[in-house]
Design a protein that fits this description.
Blueprint (H helix, E strand, L loop, with lengths): L2 H4 L19 H15 L4 E6 L5 H14 L4 E4 L6 H12 L8 H17 L4 E5 L7 H10 L3 E2 L2 E2 L1 E7 L2 H6 L5 H6 E7 L4 H14 L10 H11 L3 H16 L1
Parallel strand pairs: 1-6, 1-7, 2-3, 3-6
Antiparallel strand pairs: 4-5
Helix pairs in contact: 2-3, 4-5
């Protein structure tokens, strides 16, 4: 509504997890580098955590772009409220596995063959799980068992679990100690500080078409930080409303 008024090519504060609008703060650069390294180096299990709205899904979208560019096949689970059979059906669909049926046994056989073929070419495959804190205990156990797929040179399937801090607490449960011991890399996204909040706003507005941010004076930027506590999703919502009010 206000894009033309401010000279934006598109909405700078859209809530969609668009990698093009990623603000590459040091922690985001580090997290993306760790995720990419973990998958390419066949490290096995990688965990990404952060509070609600800190940009975890955007990081997974960036990782997807990296994997697609490197032609690394992956399955992306964005709905974790799945039964065991649905879980294996999703993996088979995403990876294009040739299975006689969608039964767990048939998917596992096809998956193992697929991963061995990838490894024989020097490649790998990945399983990306968003909202992993909502995974059932049964699915977490199934995912742990997938970690047993390996050869002499490393893990055949790289698993990225992304979720809220509850995921860390869940992984600390005694019945998941075997899975916890297999986690090689951990990344955490934290809210921005005041300086990063201002840089985040500037970055998004620049990518939308306003090279020099002139809408929000310093005192307003400070107020935005205090109100949002540096959480990107809340910053987007507040800035969108402020721009709408200024336009009106």
């Amino acid at each position: 509504m206000y894009n033309a008024f401010f000279g934006f090519k598109e909405n700078p504060f859209n809530l969609s997890p668009d990698p093009l609008f990623l603000y590459r703060s040091p922690q985001h650069e580090e997290a993306l580098a760790s995720l990419t390294y973990g998958v390419k180096s066949r490290k096995g299990f990688i965990v990404l955590t952060g509070e609600v709205g800190t940009g975890k899904t955007t990081m997974l979208e960036c990782l997807r772009d990296e994997l697609q560019a490197e032609k690394i096949p992956f399955s992306f689970l964005f709905n974790t409220r799945l039964s065991t059979s649905q879980f294996f059906e999703m993996i088979a669909y995403d990876l294009g596995l040739n299975c006689p049926s969608d039964s767990k046994a048939q998917v596992l056989i096809a998956l193992h063959q697929f991963l061995l073929q990838q490894a024989s070419r020097g490649g790998t495959a990945a399983l990306l799980v968003d909202e992993a804190h909502d995974l059932s205990w049964d699915l977490l156990e199934e995912i742990r068992m997938l970690g047993n797929l390996e050869n002499r040179t490393g893990k055949l399937l790289q698993v990225v679990l992304s979720g809220q801090p509850e995921l860390d607490r869940k992984l600390d449960a005694p019945n998941l100690r075997q899975l916890r011991q297999r986690i090689v890399l951990r990344c955490e996204l934290r809210p921005f500080d005041e300086e990063q909040t201002a840089a985040y706003i500037q970055t998004r507005m620049a990518k939308a078409g306003m090279e020099e941010q002139t809408v929000f004076p310093p005192e307003v930027l400070s107020g935005i930080y205090r109100y949002t506590r540096g959480i990107p999703r809340v910053i987007n919502i507040l800035c969108d409303n402020l721009l709408l009010m200024a336009f009106a």
